[in-house]
């Protein structure tokens, strides 16, 4: 936003790292007796919960083929070493089970204050909240070069339109992550919603905004279903 003709950021808050991994169960998993699968569920959850401050596990299949689970891990960043420590803990927690549950993809990024709003929105997802909605939608996002070469006032005007439309859907929560120079995408966009049809309406309405012409890529798109972690894994017992 602008104050006295100057561009400013809202008050700084401690950044968080949010990491999303997609996994697929392997044939060796299905060859195990039910008791072994249940023991694996307990050991896997214990490990990933020790790796991060907050962990949520989502069902992907059959909303999407090619992956079974989506694991969302979040930590607060207090020092430059925190990401490395998390990645090490996460690898130790998941690598022993690769013959049963193999990673397909991972996306991760950091939170930071938006340059287009004065304060945090009440539609912003709290990564550490235990209150999760029924569905999670996530995708990588890349803007065009022209977007970044445009004046900030022009970008602000287009984002104001984007924000106005988003506020018409107050039940839908969003988290924007920054991954410039860290992965192939620039952002990761995450939505938390109880109504997929309503979410689709929101996306449709955003398609004809002026800012849309400056989108270079917003795929692949992942849609996942939330259950408590034990219930999610029980779908594959």
Give the H and E element order.
EEEHHEEHEEHHEEHEEH
Average pLDDT score: 93
CATH topology of the domain at 16-111: Alpha-Beta Plaits
Q: Please tell me what the overall shape is.
A: globular
Termini separation comes to 51 Å
Helix content: 25-40%
CATH top level label of the domain at 16-111: Alpha Beta
Number of helices: 7
Low-confidence stretches: 1-11
Specify the structural class. alpha+beta
Largest sheet: 9 strands, antiparallel
Fourth-tier CATH superfamily name of the domain at 16-111: Apc35880, domain 1
In angstroms, what is the radius of gyration?
Answer: 19 Å
| CATH 2nd-level architecture of the domain at 16-111 | 2-Layer Sandwich
Total strands: 11
Oligomer: single chain
Task: Provide a short characterization of the protein structure.
The protein is of the alpha+beta class. It has helices at 27-30, 34-51, 82-94, 145-149, 152-167, 196-206, 229-234; strands at 2-3, 6-7, 16-25, 54-59, 69-76, 101-110, 135-143, 173-178, 187-193, 215-217, 222-226. The chain has a domain at 16-111: Alpha-Beta Plaits.
Secondary structure: elements and pairs:
Elements (H helix, E strand, L loop, with lengths): L1 E2 L2 E2 L8 E10 L1 H4 L3 H18 L2 E6 L9 E8 L5 H13 L6 E10 L24 E9 L1 H5 L2 H16 L5 E6 L8 E7 L2 H11 L8 E3 L4 E5 L2 H6 L3
Antiparallel strand pairs: 1-2, 3-5, 3-6, 4-5, 4-11, 7-9, 7-10, 7-11, 8-9
Helix pairs in contact: 2-3
